[in-house]
Amino acid sequence: MITIEYCAEGEAVSDFAVEEWWEKVRTQAAMGLSARSRVSTGLAIDRVRVGIVDGELPHQDVEFLFRGECLRLDADGFTDRWPNGFCDSYEKLARRLLEGHVRRAHS
Length: 107
Description:
Blueprint: E1 2-11, H1 18-30, E2 35-39, H2 42-53, E3 62-66, E4 69-72, H3 89-105
Parallel strand pairs: 1-2, 1-3
Antiparallel strand pairs: 3-4
Protein backbone atom coordinates (compact mmCIF):
# COMPACT_ATOMS: atom_id res chain seq x y z
CA MET A 1 0.00 0.00 0.00
CA ILE A 2 1.22 3.44 -0.92
CA THR A 3 0.06 6.10 1.53
CA ILE A 4 0.51 9.74 0.60
CA GLU A 5 -0.22 12.23 3.36
CA TYR A 6 -0.99 15.77 2.24
CA CYS A 7 0.11 18.11 5.03
CA ALA A 8 1.93 21.37 5.66
CA GLU A 9 4.95 19.54 7.10
CA GLY A 10 5.39 17.35 4.02
CA GLU A 11 7.98 17.49 1.28
CA ALA A 12 7.44 20.32 -1.20
CA VAL A 13 7.80 18.42 -4.48
CA SER A 14 8.66 20.95 -7.17
CA ASP A 15 7.64 20.95 -10.82
CA PHE A 16 11.23 20.02 -11.64
CA ALA A 17 11.40 17.08 -9.22
CA VAL A 18 7.93 15.55 -9.48
CA GLU A 19 8.87 12.86 -12.02
CA GLU A 20 11.88 11.77 -9.96
CA TRP A 21 9.70 11.69 -6.83
CA TRP A 22 7.05 9.69 -8.69
CA GLU A 23 9.63 7.19 -9.93
CA LYS A 24 10.65 6.44 -6.32
CA VAL A 25 7.05 5.93 -5.27
CA ARG A 26 6.23 3.79 -8.33
CA THR A 27 9.35 1.66 -7.86
CA GLN A 28 8.50 0.95 -4.22
CA ALA A 29 5.00 -0.06 -5.23
CA ALA A 30 6.29 -2.29 -8.05
CA MET A 31 8.54 -4.07 -5.55
CA GLY A 32 5.53 -4.72 -3.34
CA LEU A 33 6.86 -2.48 -0.59
CA SER A 34 4.57 -0.41 1.57
CA ALA A 35 5.52 3.22 1.41
CA ARG A 36 4.41 6.35 3.18
CA SER A 37 5.23 9.78 1.88
CA ARG A 38 4.31 13.19 3.26
CA VAL A 39 3.92 15.97 0.71
CA SER A 40 2.81 19.58 0.90
CA THR A 41 2.13 20.16 -2.78
CA GLY A 42 -0.88 19.17 -4.83
CA LEU A 43 1.39 18.46 -7.79
CA ALA A 44 2.61 15.24 -6.15
CA ILE A 45 -0.97 14.19 -5.45
CA ASP A 46 -1.93 14.87 -9.06
CA ARG A 47 1.09 12.90 -10.32
CA VAL A 48 -0.07 9.86 -8.36
CA ARG A 49 -3.55 10.26 -9.82
CA VAL A 50 -2.12 10.41 -13.36
CA GLY A 51 -0.04 7.30 -12.58
CA ILE A 52 -3.25 5.47 -11.73
CA VAL A 53 -4.97 6.61 -14.92
CA ASP A 54 -1.90 5.64 -16.98
CA GLY A 55 -1.96 2.14 -15.46
CA GLU A 56 1.36 2.57 -13.64
CA LEU A 57 -0.19 1.80 -10.27
CA PRO A 58 -3.46 0.08 -9.33
CA HIS A 59 -5.85 2.45 -7.59
CA GLN A 60 -6.46 -0.16 -4.88
CA ASP A 61 -2.82 0.22 -3.82
CA VAL A 62 -3.06 3.94 -3.06
CA GLU A 63 -4.57 6.00 -0.30
CA PHE A 64 -4.31 9.69 0.49
CA LEU A 65 -4.43 11.00 4.03
CA PHE A 66 -5.63 14.51 4.83
CA ARG A 67 -6.30 15.78 8.35
CA GLY A 68 -6.72 12.23 9.62
CA GLU A 69 -9.15 11.28 6.85
CA CYS A 70 -8.36 8.46 4.42
CA LEU A 71 -9.28 9.14 0.79
CA ARG A 72 -9.43 6.16 -1.56
CA LEU A 73 -9.34 6.58 -5.33
CA ASP A 74 -11.18 4.94 -8.20
CA ALA A 75 -9.61 3.73 -11.45
CA ASP A 76 -9.97 7.24 -12.90
CA GLY A 77 -7.92 8.79 -10.09
CA PHE A 78 -10.91 10.43 -8.42
CA THR A 79 -12.17 10.24 -4.86
CA ASP A 80 -15.82 10.33 -3.86
CA ARG A 81 -15.15 13.29 -1.56
CA TRP A 82 -12.77 16.21 -1.85
CA PRO A 83 -12.38 17.92 1.54
CA ASN A 84 -11.98 21.68 1.69
CA GLY A 85 -8.26 22.49 1.77
CA PHE A 86 -7.19 19.28 0.03
CA CYS A 87 -5.06 20.28 -2.97
CA ASP A 88 -7.30 23.19 -3.88
CA SER A 89 -4.82 26.09 -3.93
CA TYR A 90 -4.57 26.19 -7.74
CA GLU A 91 -8.36 26.13 -8.07
CA LYS A 92 -8.77 28.99 -5.60
CA LEU A 93 -6.11 31.09 -7.35
CA ALA A 94 -7.59 30.39 -10.79
CA ARG A 95 -11.04 31.40 -9.52
CA ARG A 96 -9.62 34.72 -8.26
CA LEU A 97 -7.93 35.34 -11.62
CA LEU A 98 -11.16 34.68 -13.49
CA GLU A 99 -13.19 36.84 -11.12
CA GLY A 100 -10.70 39.67 -11.62
CA HIS A 101 -10.96 39.29 -15.38
CA VAL A 102 -14.76 39.38 -15.23
CA ARG A 103 -14.72 42.47 -12.99
CA ARG A 104 -12.42 44.31 -15.40
CA ALA A 105 -14.49 43.25 -18.41
CA HIS A 106 -17.62 44.68 -16.81
CA SER A 107 -16.01 47.96 -15.70
